[in-house]
């Protein structure tokens, strides 16, 4: 990781072609270095953080005044940094009878800030939680004394998590966890604090900036979705082909413990919705054996979405995995103990993230924890099912091969779709797809849960969500449409995105049939579509043209009165 | 280490930290003589010098140096102990 001086040098680089993100930064201590670290590191991530920095200690003034510079700037992201030091000095100034309710009062004030910001502008809020300061007034007894500062600070951090769980636009940046990792001596430098009113140590800035930017990237849809594992000496100790199943190291003995714990971590990621793939230089049957038969293996074949074991080069194999999964290379992480393989993949697929695993497997986990690879800004029940979905996709690919005729294949799938407006139940999944869909996404406007909620309740919008089920299984919610009333005759298709795992099923036709019917029933004449190109959505470049829309630069128009329903093998599920 | 050697090393630190190849320090150089040397940059310079010489300045010293010569005094004093 670059140090702060190196990040600062980035500030002189050219930001013109980078994606512009408007960020407001407000702190109760001086934030100039944090601003420079964020902006400098942003350059390395290919984004231009256009940061407006509030004057020192102006949080309340800026947030509570609707005509403030903060709101005039119209940021997409608001970063609020209230420091543990200011918290402590507030605590010191309150009378002891108020110490018991100190955290509660603080959390109410923070909730108030949140409410004010979200009432005034549409922005996501990043709030730093509080790294611990133990003022040692009570010693260990602070843990038993509810009125102690330590007790109240920890309570406040807990309350912040509860608040964030409730508020869709509130994201916590875990400064406290960073302090646990790098130590208080690095996070906080007393002499810098005394001389500048800055509380963050210079050596801690790059890490804090990285954690902050990973939230911003997550909000903008840049997240890791897939973990690709090498097997020998990465997933277990030893070489399966040479050592045999009885001799590989996994389990409670010796270094086996390191691999077991590593596998448990991978399993948790899988349960969170990260796709797990295997890419190994091995004979396939030999490589699969431990997954099937070794009693101490934590990972089993059902945890792996795509299993590639052969003697080809790993870059080609990862290309193959990418094709099956249909996700970007930049959303993949590849773990391999062998520096040679790592370099081949890095050279050929520069977008794939390839961490420099430590030599000693005992250090794998701590190293990987520190990288914070799998940031996310949403989590829904669907995530946990993803592995199954991709496995089913692999079965479908096999079934497809048996039918020479596309129509027969689709008919045979017996597809049904549940069509519903946005509801509180599907809102998290829709917001998540909005963040994640890159390829089949016509305008790539990202919406948060609160945006989705607002549109669902607005008269000016009509919203549709689609599921897709077939005889192999349920794909869940895979497509969303947002129509915006442009005039009494025209619906503008504000959003049309679809999960790529249901491509080539005729879903597009079914969706269009559905919204044309809706438009006709409500006496509208036109649907108006728009394609906004991004580096990733070339797939749908001709989407509207192919569906019969007429191009009227830069929009595509469809007269619904002249529309005849398109062929589709999907039937609508009746809703009760 | 002689004062001159310390001066040379500090000069390198200034060039790197302030990202300005043209800085030439002598003992009488003051903050006002160098554009980028403001109070914020001062913090980074102090941090870089502390790391380089493996010493810790006192908060009082950091705010009271009048010129580069006095910085060298502080470093000298700490490295000799």
Automatic annotation (TrEMBL), chain A:
Gene3D superfamilies: HAD superfamily/HAD-like, SGNH hydrolase. One of its GO terms (molecular function) is hydrolase activity, acting on ester bonds. Residues 22-216 form the BF1531-like N-terminal domain. Signal peptide: none annotated. NCBIfam families: FkbH, HAD-SF-IIIC. This is HAD superfamily phosphatase (TIGR01681 family)/FkbH-like protein. It comes from Flagellimonas meridianipacifica.
UniProtKB/TrEMBL annotation, chain B:
InterPro entries: ACP-like_sf, PP-bd_ACP. PROSITE patterns: CARRIER (PS50075). Residues 1-79 form the Carrier domain. This is Acyl carrier protein.
């Amino acid at each position: 990781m670059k140090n702060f001086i190196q990040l600062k040098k980035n500030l002189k680089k050219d930001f013109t072609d980078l994606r512009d993100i408007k960020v407001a930064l407000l702190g109760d201590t001086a934030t100039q270095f944090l601003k420079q670290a964020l902006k400098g590191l942003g350059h390395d991530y290919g984004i231009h953080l256009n940061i407006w920095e509030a004057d020192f200690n102006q949080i309340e003034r800026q947030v509570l005044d609707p005509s403030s510079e903060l709101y005039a700037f119209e940021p997409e992201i608001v970063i609020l940094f209230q420091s543990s030091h200011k918290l402590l000095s507030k605590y010191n100034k309150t009378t002891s009878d108020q110490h018991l309710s100190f955290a509660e009062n603080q959390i109410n004030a923070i909730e108030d800030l949140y409410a004010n910001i979200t009432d005034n502008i549409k922005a996501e809020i990043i709030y730093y939680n509080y790294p611990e300061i133990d003022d040692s007034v009570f010693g260990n007894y602070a843990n038993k004394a509810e009125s102690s500062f330590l007790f109240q600070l920890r309570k406040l951090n807990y309350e912040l998590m509860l608040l964030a769980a409730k508020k869709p636009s509130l994201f916590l940046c875990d400064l406290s966890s960073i302090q646990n990792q790098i130590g208080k001596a690095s996070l906080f430098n007393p002499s810098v604090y005394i001389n500048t009113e800055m509380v963050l140590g210079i050596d801690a800035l790059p890490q804090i900036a990285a954690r902050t930017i990973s939230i911003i990237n997550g909000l903008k849809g840049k997240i890791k979705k897939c973990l690709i594992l090498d097997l020998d000496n990465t997933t277990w100790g030893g070489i399966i082909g040479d050592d045999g199943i009885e001799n590989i190291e996994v389990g409670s003995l010796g270094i086996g413990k390191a691999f077991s714990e590593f596998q448990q971590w991978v399993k948790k990621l899988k349960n969170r919705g990260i796709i797990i793939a295997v890419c190994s230089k091995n004979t396939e049957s030999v490589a699969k054996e431990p997954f099937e038969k070794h009693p101490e293996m934590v990972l089993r074949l059902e945890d792996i979405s795509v299993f590639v074991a052969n003697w080809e080069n790993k870059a080609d194999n990862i290309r193959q995995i990418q094709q099956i999964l249909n996700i970007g290379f930049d959303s993949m992480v590849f773990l391999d103990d062998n520096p040679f393989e790592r370099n081949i993949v890095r050279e050929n697929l520069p977008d794939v993230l390839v961490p420099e695993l430590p030599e000693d497997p005992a250090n794998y986990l701590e190293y990987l924890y520190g990288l914070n690879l799998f940031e996310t800004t949403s989590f829904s029940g669907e995530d946990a099912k993803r592995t199954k979905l991709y496995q089913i996709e692999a079965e479908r690919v096999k079934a497809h091969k048996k039918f020479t005729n596309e129509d027969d294949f689709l008919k045979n799938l017996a597809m049904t779709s549940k069509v519903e407006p946005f509801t509180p139940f599907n809102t998290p999944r829709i917001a998540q797809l909005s963040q994640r869909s890159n390829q089949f996404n016509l305008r790539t406007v990202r919406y948060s849960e609160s945006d989705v909620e607002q549109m669902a309740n607005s008269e000016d919008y009509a919203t549709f969500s689609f599921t897709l089920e077939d005889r192999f299984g349920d794909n869940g919610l895979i497509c969303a449409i947002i129509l915006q009333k442009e005039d009494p005759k025209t619906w503008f298709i504000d959003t049309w995105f679809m999960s790529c795992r249901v491509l080539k099923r005729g879903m597009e036709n079914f969706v269009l049939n559905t919204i044309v019917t809706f438009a006709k029933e409500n006496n509208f004449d036109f649907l108006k579509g728009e394609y906004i190109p991004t580096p990733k959505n070339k797939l749908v470049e001709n989407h509207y043209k192919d569906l019969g829309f007429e191009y009227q630069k830069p929009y595509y128009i469809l007269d619904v009165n002249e529309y005849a329903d398109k062929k589709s093998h999907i039937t609508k599920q009746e809703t009760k | 280490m002689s004062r001159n050697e310390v001066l040379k090393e500090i000069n390198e630190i200034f060039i790197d930290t302030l990202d300005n190849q043209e800085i030439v320090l002598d003992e009488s150089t003051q903050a006002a003589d160098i554009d980028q040397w403001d109070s914020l940059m001062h913090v980074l310079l102090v941090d870089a010098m502390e790391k380089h010489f493996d010493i810790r300045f006192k908060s009082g010293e950091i705010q009271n140096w009048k010129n580069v010569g006095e910085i060298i005094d502080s470093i000298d004093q700490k490295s000799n102990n």
